[in-house]
Structure prediction request, 117 residues.
Amino acid sequence: MTYFSWDKRSPREFRGKPQWTLDELYISPFTARRRYDEEGVRHYDAIARNTAPTGVQVMDHYLRRLSEGKEVVKDFCPIYGLRTEDMEALIYILTGMRGQDFRMALRQRGDTGRYRL
Prediction:
């Protein structure tokens, strides 16, 4: 995977293997799924949610915030005393994707069905 750095002066290529895929990191914002039985009665079934898919405290907390629609990195970073560059680097190292691309792909992966990858 080749991505261009933010300053656009030189491309950077992730040479490692990403540790997680989008599907492994995606946390659904929904807690239940609606279904109807034969008589048309509506039921809600709980959805199993893994809210700590990586085991990395900072990344898991960030993924939970993304599932709540809170995507602004600069709002998240002060919680851990990080710079936005630190969080972007963590995302890049763990996923092989730039932070912006990662957030866009997770948003498109959403459970709405409109943006299914």
